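Q: Got a minute? One more chain.
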Amino acid sequence: MLDEFYPLIETLIKDVQYLEAETVKARYELSCRVQNSHRAFLRSDILSDLRSNYSENRTYQAYLEQFCDGQDPFESVEWEKRIMMLAHINQE
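A: Always. Here it is, folded:
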């Protein structure tokens, strides 16, 4: 039955990633336009509260195991690099 939901779950993940990326970009742009006294606070908050945590959801866990080799797309190296780049956070 999970096979029937795969296209929907995949689309929802891409939608959430798109919205997360747009939020990070908007937060960064806002931090560039505020007074210096508020800039550090806004920049430290750029990556906070972007989405819910789905890792405890059994259906999401089953989806990850069956279609993603257990790798959460929101925790992939590629996704992390992209978000950090959008937030203008240097990666070491």
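A: The CA atoms of residues 16 and 51 lie 8 Å apart.
Q: Perfect, thanks.
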